[in-house]
Amino acid sequence: MEDSLLFKSNDLYLKINGLFQRCEQILGLNHCECSILSVLYTHKSITQGEISQGFDMPKQTVNNVIKALSKQGYIRFGSSARDKREKVVILTQSGEDYINENLKPFLEFCNRVLERMGEDRVQNMIKGLEDFYFALKLEAEELKKKQREKDMMKEKRSGGAA
Could you read off the pLDDT of 22-67 as tens digits, one per residue? Predict the structure, then answer.
């Protein structure tokens, strides 16, 4: 594939991500906190593992954000209805109030952006992004596998030289 497509897509990704971050800053929001609060707003209770898996986010990152949200009083922990041993994250009233005051304006902003594009273009964009995500995920898995093999070869060489 043409290098210019790689550079154009990367440039566009960085621009979009930068704009989102600036808009979140204007509203005083933290990106990871926004993402997790958004999920809790729609799901009401969810495990940290489900959040990590759903966002393809490292468990430690999710854990750190969850701790910060808990200290702020926006979430609490409870037992899962499926399995009492499993802890779930639950949005508190304070968390709902925070979302209504701070996150909802951002979500409304995002909806206005999508409305400007029109439903057909948004659907096409979603399909393209899904395709990109799955291709990226497969390539990331291959990269990880190759890196492990490379590390094993280094380890064998250094172990043999010692």
Answer: 878 887 778 888 888 888 888 878 999 999 998 888 999 999 999 9
Could you please report the per-residue DSSP string of 7-22? HHHHHHHHHHHHHHHH
CB atoms within 10 A of CB 61: 14
Edge to edge, what strands does the sheet with 75-79 contain? 45-46, 87-91, 75-79
- Show Cβ contacts of residue 39 under 8 Å, excluding neighbours closer than 6 positions: 46, 51, 54, 55
Question: Exposed (0-12), middle (13-18) or buried (19+): which is 91, by Cβ within 10 Å?
Answer: buried
The dihedral built from the CA positions of residue 8, 14, 17 and 20, taken in this order, carries a sign that is negative
Residue 37 CB neighbours (<10 A)? 23
Residue type at position 37: L
Residue closest to 43 by CA, chosen among 84, 96, 4, 7:
96
Q: Where do the H-state alpha helices sit in 27-118?
A: 31-43, 48-55, 59-71, 93-98, 104-117
Verdict on whether the full-model pTM lies above 0.90: no
